[in-house]
Amino acid sequence: MGEAALVCGVCQAVYAIDIPIWRCNCGGLLNIIHEGLFDPKEIVASDVSLWRYRERLAIPETAIVTFGEGFTPLLPVSIGGREVLVKQEHLFQTGSYKDRGATTLISQAKALGVTRVVEDSSGNAGCAIAAYCAKAGISSDIYVPADTSPAKITQIIRYGAKIHAIPGSREDTAAAVMAAAQVDYYASHSWNPFFFEGTKTFSYEVWEQMNGHEPAAVVLPAGNGTILLGAYLGFQDLLASGLIRQMPRMIGVQASACNPLAQALNLNSDEPVAIAKQDTIAEGIAIAAPIRGKQIIEAVRKTGGFFISVSEQEIVESLDEMCRAGYYIEPTSAATIAGVKRIVQSNLVQGTIVSLFTGHGLKANDKMMKIHS
Ligand SMILES: *Cc1c(COP(=O)(O)O)cnc(C)c1O
Ligand SMILES: [Zn+2]
C-alpha cells in the first residue's frame, strides 16, 4: 500500500490510517487521502480481482480478506434502443456490488485486530459485511429494517451474523445502531471511509475494460451514494494521473418516492432536502437522509451531472425488460436502468454511457413474485 491518511471533511483534522475510528472527534465524516498518483505500472496484472490495485488501496497486505471479487464483466446491453455498457455487479459472492466495499473495510478491521463489528443496512450491505466477517472470523451484529426482503435477512443469518430487525423506517434502523457503534467497530458503508477504498475500484476497472478511455457519463444509484462516491474518487485518481482527459459526468438515479438529492439540485441547495418518503419497490435506495448527501451533490455538480427521479412504473418496466433480456436483477437495480432509459430516450448524453446491475434478483424473490402476479 502507498501512503495515506484519514482526513476530516469538516475540521480538516488528520489521523493515522491505522487508528480504529469511523468518524472525527468533531463528529465530521472522514475521507482517505492518498499521497502521490495512481500508477498503472503498479497494477498486479496477474491478479484478476480488484486487489490488483492493492498499491492504491490503504489496507496492509497482511490482512486481506477476499473471495477473489471484482473485475466483473462490462457488457453492452440494449436499453431504450441504445447500447450501454453495463457492469455486471450482481455477480459478486453475496449478490451485490457491496462486496467491493466489504472486502476493503473488513480487511482493514482485521488488520486493526477488531473482533466484533456492527453495521446497519437496507439489506445488501449487511449481507456483504456478514459474509466477509464470516471469512475473517470476526463476529458481526447487523441492523436492518424489519420489512427487508426475507431472502436478505436469511442470508445474513446464514453467514452467522446476529440480526437485529428494527420496526419502522430505514432511519429508525440507523438510530438503533448508534448506541452499539459507540462500543464496537462501526463497519458502516456510509460512514466508514474504508468502504469507499473498495468501491473506487469500479472506475479503475471500467478504465481498463475500455482500453484506457473514460465514458462520457456514468449512471449510478444515489441512495447513500456508496458506488457513486467511490466511482467519483476512482475517476478523480485517473484524471490526476493524466490517464483520462476529463471526468465522466456523474448521474445519480433516485426513486421519485424518495429523492432528497434530486430535489436539492432543483432548489440549488448544497444539502439533501428534508422529504416525506413514500413507499418504493427500490428498497435499496430509499434513503431519506443520506449521511454523505453533501458530497454526492458536489460530485454530481462538479462533473456537470444531474439526478433523475424515476417512477414506480418506470422501475417495474425496466425490471421486466432486463429480465426478458436474460438479466435477473432485483427491483432496486432496475431503478438505475430506468434512469439510463430516460437519459437515452431524452438524448441527455452524447457518447458512451456506463452503468451497472447492482444486485441479483434471487435476493428479492418475494418482491419479484409479487410484481409478476
Ligand atoms: C446499496 C444498493 C444500491 C444503492 O447504493 P447506495 O450506496 O445506497 O447509493 C442500489 N442497488 C442495490 C441492489 C444496492 O444493494
Ligand atoms: Zn473533524
Describe this structure in words.
Helices cover 35% and strands 17% of the residues. The protein contains twelve helices and 13 strands. Strands 4-5-13-10-11-12 form a six-stranded mixed β-sheet, sandwiched between helices. It has a four-stranded parallel β-sheet with strand order 8-7-6-9, with helices on both faces. Helix 1 packs parallel to helix 2 and helix 2 (124-136) runs parallel beside helix 3. It is globular and about 50 Å long. The model has no long low-confidence stretch (mean pLDDT 96). It binds pyridoxal-5'-phosphate and zinc ion.
Question: How do the helices and strands line up, and which of them pair or pack?
Answer:
Blueprint: E1 4-8, E2 14-16, E3 30-34, E4 74-79, E5 82-87, H1 99-111, E6 116-120, H2 124-136, E7 139-145, H3 150-158, E8 162-166, H4 170-181, E9 185-186, H5 194-199, H6 201-209, E10 217-221, H7 226-240, E11 249-255, H8 260-266, H9 293-302, E12 307-310, H10 312-324, H11 331-345, E13 353-356, H12 365-372
Parallel strand pairs: 5-13, 6-7, 6-9, 7-8, 10-11, 10-13, 11-12
Antiparallel strand pairs: 1-2, 1-3, 4-5
Helix pairs in contact: 1-2, 2-3, 6-7, 10-11
